[in-house]
Specification:
This protein is mainly β and 316 residues long. It has helices at residues 23-39, 155-159, 168-174, 204-215, and strands at 4-5, 12-13, 41-54, 67-83, 89-95, 101-104, 111-113, 118-123, 132-134, 144-146, 149-151, 190-195, 198-203, 216-218, 222-224, 227-230, 237-244, 248-254, 263-268, 274-281, 284-292, 298-303, 308-313. The radius of gyration is 43 Å and the shape is rod-shaped.
Length: 316
């Protein structure tokens, strides 16, 4: 009875009564094939764009190694065909070339190992429709280290980066890059803002509108009879039109919400009668201010952080 061979590694099974006196040589060769299949590391030299990785029956062959170290100088993506197409194979692949190596066995799926990377693959040995499967394609790893450093981010945190296409320069700016440029700001440029905990992208024109609207608080006209208080609703400059119906009245400006550099415009819209402007800090009168006579129409005050420097003028 002639020898037969195992399906996946080509190990010779000596027929009954065969190889009398020589079976030891065959057995030793079989043990070498087994050793290579379990722990063998084979160096595969690639050239051009194709290579056939063969496992031959009863012979030590490069396709019989467990680990494949790809070397050589392929001229482009190198397609490695696992032969024969009916053998099941498991390979650990290390591609040390500067080109991608694509493993195929039949018309089924292929697996590409890019230059410099490593993968664990297996061939299903399904004949003409055989496929290659990447075992490392969807590994479930409890703890991951890169270059010896533990990755502590959760999957949910890393998934937040899915779809991010920022450049290294852009990410470095977010990370606190101190290199400040002088690129002109245009109305259509985007500015990142924190909207109650949600980061949003808003045009510079939108910010300009907001700042202009909040630059000066234009208040509704007041009729002054006795003493009235003008209180800024926030840290903004104030324009306050007033009507002094009779006599000499007093206007007090509350400075509690103001910051240095902001101003108050008191517009006495009536040409008759007079008015005194002073200011308060937490309800305490801190200055007698200035008086606007019947001919003066505007009192303009610049806040210096604790009080005002008022001047009076007329409208032109």
């Amino acid at each position: 009875m002639a020898s037969t061979y195992t399906a996946n590694s080509g190990i010779e099974k000596i027929g009954a009564g065969e190889q009398a006196g020589t079976w030891g040589t065959t057995t030793n060769n079989n043990l070498e094939i087994i050793d290579r299949a379990i722990n063998g590391v084979g160096s595969i030299t690639l050239s051009g764009t194709t290579h056939t990785l063969t496992t031959s029956d009863g012979t030590l062959s490069e396709g019989g190694n467990k680990v494949l170290v790809l070397g050589g100088s392929p001229s482009g993506t190198n397609t490695i065909t696992i032969s024969p197409n009916d053998q099941d194979k498991i390979y650990i692949v290390h591609n040390t070339t500067n080109q991608t190596a694509t493993f195929t066995q039949g018309s089924g799926a292929n697996v590409s190992v890019v230059a410099g990377s490593k993968k664990i693959i297996y061939a299903d040995g399904a004949g003409s429709g055989a496929a290659i499967i990447d075992v490392t394609d969807a590994l479930d790893i409890a703890a991951l280290r890169l270059g010896g450093t533990a990755i502590t981010s959760t999957a949910a945190e890393l998934n937040k980066l899915d779809g991010v296409n920022s450049t290294t320069t852009e990410l470095n700016i977010v990370d606190g890059d101190t290199s400040v440029g002088t690129t002109a700001v245009a109305a259509g440029d985007g500015i990142v803002t924190n909207d109650a905990g949600t980061m949003r992208h808003t045009t510079a024109a939108t910010f300009s509108t907001y700042f202009n609207q909040n630059l000066v608080e234009a208040k509704t006209a007041l009729n002054v009879s006795g003493t009235v208080t003008v209180t800024p609703s926030g840290a903004t400059s104030v324009y306050q039109p007033l009507v002094v119906a009779s006599g000499s009245q007093t206007v007090r400006v509350a400075v509690t919400n103001l910051v240095a550099g902001q101003y108050v415009i008191i517009d006495k819209t009536t040409s008759a009668n007079s008015m005194t402007i002073d200011w308060t800090n937490n309800s305490a009168v801190t200055s007698s201010g200035i008086s606007l006579g019947s001919s003066a129409e505007l009192g303009i005050g610049i806040f210096n952080g604790s009080g005002f420097s008022f001047t009076e003028t007329v409208k032109f």
